[in-house]
Each structure stands twice: as structure tokens, then as C-alpha cells.
Amino acid sequence: MNIQEIQDLIKFVAKSQVSEVEIEKKDFKITIKSEMKSKGGGNDQPIIVQAAAPAPLAIPAAAPVTAVAPAVAAPEVASNLIEIKSPMIGTFYRSSGPDKDLFVNVGDTIGVGDTVCIIEAMKLFNEIEAEVTGKIVKVLVDDATPVEYDQPLFLVEPA
pTM of the full predicted structure? Predict the structure, then answer.
């Protein structure tokens, strides 16, 4: 995870009013927590801590964070299926608009580079492209719902 992705995550957390977010990968773990100052103590500042990484990093953000993010359980995957995962935190959309066709449906064949969904993060709509060729077996997320970083979105049977 690079510094820009961390800064984007901080901004998103601040806007979504989450009090704590934790991301863990093989080589690092990052936790973003908010500690509020006393009533008479000026601006509220979230405190950012990164642990178990190659180098410690602390980045202050400018907005308070107050709610708790729900935990997301990963579904079990059959051994021959490939997951298309969310590359970011945001809101998952299956089409480009309410009156538009869905990007993909169960049973559709996709190729590398085909748009499979949109994830809105910080008012930006990011098209998510397939990195595998195959057939959509299952859509794991409901339209217009929040998704976490690295959360499985689709199951694909590779071609």
C-alpha cells in the first residue's frame, strides 16, 4: 500500500465517520483510529498508526471520525473459482446509473479489461475491470452497498 492509497483511505474514513478501520496483509497491518479531544480543546484529529510494517508511519488527518465500521466476512470459495476483489473502500454499483444496464450478470462471459462494476470512493466513480477471462458464477455484493478493501465482489469460473 503506497502513501497515496493511505491518504485516500484517511480521507474516506474521515468522511464516512468511522471510528476505527484495520487492514491487514501479509507484510503490513494498518489501523486508523480516532481519538477526540476534550470539548474545549480545538479541532478534533484522528490518530493514524501503522504497525508491523517495514517502516513505522504516522499520518494525521484533518477531519473527525466517529462511527464504527462493520466487519465483513469473506465467503468460502470453490477451489476452481477466482474472486474479483474490491481494490478500494467505497460503494459498489452494478451499473453506471439507475436506468442503465448492469455491467455483468451471472452466466456472462468476461475478458481481461472488461468493466464488471463501479466503486464510488470520495465522490469519484472508479470502473473496476476484470483481470481474468471466464464466466461470472456469482455476484457476492448487493448493488449500492458499501464494500471494504480486498472484499470479494464476484466469483468467476476461469476459461
Answer: 0.53
- Pair 106, 51 in one domain: no
> Cα-flanking dihedrals φ and ψ of residue 50, to 5°?
-120, 125
| In a domain? residue 146 | yes
Q: What is the pLDDT along the chain (159 residues), one digit of tens a residue?
A: 677 777 777 777 766 666 677 777 777 777 776 554 444 444 455 444 444 445 445 555 555 554 554 555 555 556 789 999 999 999 999 999 989 999 999 999 999 999 999 999 999 999 999 999 999 999 999 999 999 999 999 999 998
Q: Which residues contact 153 (CB under 8 A, 6 or more apart)?
A: 83, 84, 85, 86, 92, 116, 117, 128, 139, 140, 141, 147
Tell me, yes or no, whether 76 lies in a domain. no
| Domain that residue 142 falls in | 82-158
Asked if 93 and 118 sit in the same domain, the reply is: yes
CA distance 13 to 49: 14
- Answer whether 153's CB lies under 8 Å from 145's CB: no
**Which CATH number goes with the domain that contains 90?**
2.40.50.100
